[in-house]
Structures are given as structure tokens and as C-alpha cells.
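Fill in residues.
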């Protein structure tokens, strides 16, 4: 199996400048390759240029511009061109499927934050022999950069990436390792109902509170963003010291919320994986849930629109994004795979409207957000617990129906 590790880098002032130059030059390469593809399509009878043709030009590009392109790793530049090629493949796939295409766009320096090295030792070498918490990674054109390794790397390192987040630099490793020993069987199964009032509710009636990290930090974020909005929009190298401090303050607050949300998701997923052999959850289409409501034209007044609940939906979308269901499910599946647990996603339709006692389905069964009262058999319970019970039953049926 493949596992990723993310470590904080501690570069010197000179190395920090070199890393920033590496990002800028790879961004320039990305934009230049994108411009070449656009020009070829527009002016050469709609001809398309692919990765192989652009990769073959790298040797000449490095020779013509040795100061900016020649000093960086050849394989990392190939990875940047592959990144552009994947963007075009996704664009054509969406066009073919009839979805919103989203043509690849030029990247500003602030948008381009990662450089990939497809193979450890080719342009970037991880020191796998060191067992100290403060080890080093050698990056071509930058030197030996200190890395704070807060946990050991198990397995063989395959790829290395350097990423910038605000003023910090991170090293991301992917390592191939053997499948770990599964956790002992507990004989317990659980269904979970994910919500906003509670982060999740289990089929056993346990409620995990929603920490609402984004809402708690909203006041500070609003003040920091208002302070930033007072400065005119200028390029990074033209910012004053006060402007840069305002930018860094906003990035710091967003980073703190993101890390709090990630920490909560790790702890909640780990508790479920340790306690249960099977975990069933709703197969939520989060992207669809975040869509804005369609406008409602007023038939009596052309050019006017009727109320469509957009303001209320915007608040709901903000709460859905803040709770972080997608991050939690990704972590849950990864931890379950390592622990040898089963995770089953089931259809979420009518899970909170179906009575677990008699099976009656009706919207009237849920008179309020929290209360469930079956109009057929008069069974009453917490609505989220009922949803988790129905999710568990559907998960058990799906597990037993799968071929061995």
C-alpha cells in the first residue's frame, strides 16, 4: 500500500529564496507550455500539442535559459508538464461528458504552490538513514534543507513533493509499504449519520458534537480580511511590509482552522476504526449539496426574479463546508484500509424518514430536525439515531450481497 507523509521544512533565508525561485520558474514553465498549446490550437489548424512533444523541448529550453530553467531538476520539470497534460485530459473528458468544461488557466505565483519529484534520488533525495527528528532532504538547486520529521517513515520512499503554504514549506513523501497487520476483531458494527447539528450520530445513540471551527474563527477572520482589503491589489514583490503582514495573518488563521478540522476528523475516524469491524455511512454527494439554487424568473415582471431561498442556502452551504464531511470520509477510508476494517457507503435517500420498527416511509415521520415520530406505529426516537440505524441495516445488506 501507499502512504503519504507530510513534514515541516526549516530552510535558511537563502534556501527560502531558492525554493521560492524554484516555484516561480516551474510556474513560468507551466504557463509557457499552456500558451504554446493555446497558440497551436488557434493558429495551426486546431492542432493539439501533447506532453511528449513539450517534454522533448525541455533540453533546448534548459540550454537557452540556464539561469532560470537549467538549474532545476529535469524530472521535476517533466512532472510540471505532466500536470498540465492531466489538466487538459480532464478538460476534454468533461467536454465529452457534457459537463462544464473548465479550460486550464494560467497560474499566478500565488496559485502555483507545489513542485513534484517523481522519483526519490532524481533531483531530490530524502535522507532515509537518519533517525533524528531533525533530518535533511537534498533538493537540486537549493541544497540540504532541514526537515522536522515528527514520525518515522515506514517503507520505501517513491515520490517527493515540495509545497508552500503561506510562509511555511512542507515536504510530502509517498512511501510504498507492506499491508500492516489488521486490528483484532471486535464483533461490533456501526452505522453513522452525518449532520450539522451533530458532527455524527452512531446507531448506538452516541452523538459526536460538531466543533464548528470555522464559525468560532469567523470574527477573527472577518477582521483580518477587512484589514487586508484596505490595501490595493498588487503583485507579491510590490507589497509593503504592512500589506505582507496582513496577507500572512489571513493565511495563518485559515491554516489554523484547516488543521483543527483535520485533527478532529483524524480523532473521530480513529475511534470508530478501533471500536468497530464494519462502518456504514451515507454516500453523500457533497458537491451537489453545495450547489446554489436556480433563479426563479418572475413571470409577471420580465427581468425580475422571485425569492428562491438563496440566502438561506448560502448559510447552509457554509455550515456544510465547515463541518468537513469529505475530509472525514477520506480519512476514515484510509484508516479502515490500514486496520483491515470494512467501510460501506449506502444510498442516503429516506434514511431519516423510514421507521426502524415497522418500515413505514413518510416525510411526516420527521416533524422536526431532531424528533422522529412514526405516524404508523407511533415509534419515537432521535431522528439522527434513526438515520444511523437505517444506514447500518442497509450497509449490512450490501456487505452480505457482495461476492466473497
Amino acid at each position: 500500500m501507499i502512504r503519504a507523509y507530510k513534514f515541516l521544512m526549516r530552510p535558511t533565508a537563502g534556501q527560502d529564496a531558492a525554493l521560492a525561485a524554484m516555484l516561480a520558474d516551474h510556474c513560468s514553465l507551466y504557463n509557457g507550455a499552456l500558451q504554446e498549446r493555446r497558440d497551436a490550437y488557434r493558429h495551426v489548424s486546431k492542432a493539439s500539442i501533447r506532453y511528449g512533444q513539450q517534454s522533448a523541448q525541455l533540453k533546448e529550453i534548459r540550454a537557452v535559459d540556464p539561469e532560470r530553467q537549467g538549474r532545476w531538476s529535469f524530472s521535476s520539470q517533466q512532472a510540471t508538464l505532466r500536470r498540465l497534460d492531466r489538466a487538459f485530459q480532464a478538460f476534454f473528458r468533461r467536454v465529452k461528458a457534457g459537463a462544464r468544461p473548465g479550460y486550464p488557466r494560467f497560474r499566478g505565483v500565488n496559485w502555483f504552490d507545489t513542485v513534484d519529484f517523481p522519483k526519490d534520488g532524481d533531483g531530490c533525495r530524502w535522507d532515509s538513514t537518519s533517525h533524528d527528528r531533525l533530518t535533511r532532504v537534498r533538493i537540486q538547486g537549493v541544497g540540504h534543507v532541514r526537515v522536522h520529521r515528527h514520525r518515522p517513515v515506514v517503507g520505501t520512499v517513491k515520490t517527493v513533493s515540495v509545497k508552500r503554504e503561506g510562509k511555511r514549506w512542507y515536504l510530502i513523501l509517498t512511501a510504498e509499504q507492506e499491508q500492516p497487520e489488521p486490528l483484532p476483531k471486535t464483533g461490533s458494527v456501526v452505522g453513522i449519520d452525518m449532520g450539522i447539528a451533530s458532527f455524527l450520530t452512531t446507531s448506538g445513540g452516541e452523538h459526536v458534537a460538531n466543533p464548528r471551527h470555522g464559525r468560532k474563527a469567523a470574527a477573527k477572520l472577518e477582521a483580518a480580511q477587512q484589514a487586508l482589503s484596505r490595501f490595493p491589489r498588487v503583485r507579491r514583490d510590490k507589497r509593503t511590509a504592512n500589506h505582507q503582514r496582513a496577507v500572512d495573518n489571513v493565511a495563518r488563521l485559515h491554516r489554523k482552522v484547516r488543521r483543527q478540522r483535520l485533527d478532529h476528523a483524524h480523532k473521530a475516524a480513529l475511534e470508530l476504526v478501533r471500536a468497530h469491524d464494519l462502518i456504514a455511512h451515507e454516500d453523500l454527494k457533497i458537491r451537489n449539496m453545495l450547489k446554489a439554487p436556480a433563479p426563479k424568473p418572475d413571470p409577471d415582471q420580465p427581468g425580475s426574479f422571485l425569492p428562491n431561498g438563496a440566502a438561506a442556502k448560502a448559510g447552509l452551504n457554509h455550515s456544510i463546508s465547515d463541518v468537513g464531511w469529505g475530509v472525514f470520509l477520506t480519512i476514515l477510508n484510509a484508516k479502515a484500509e490500514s486496520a483491515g476494517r470494512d467501510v460501506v457507503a449506502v444510498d442516503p435517500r429516506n434514511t431519516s424518514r423510514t421507521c426502524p420498527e415497522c418500515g413505514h416511509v413518510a416525510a411526516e415521520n420527521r416533524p422536526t430536525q431532531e424528533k422522529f415520530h412514526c405516524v404508523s406505529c407511533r415509534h419515537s426516537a432521535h431522528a439522527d439515531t434513526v438515520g444511523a440505524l437505517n444506514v447500518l441495516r442497509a450497509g449490512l445488506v450490501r456487505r452480505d450481497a457482495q461476492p466473497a
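Residues 189-401 form one domain.
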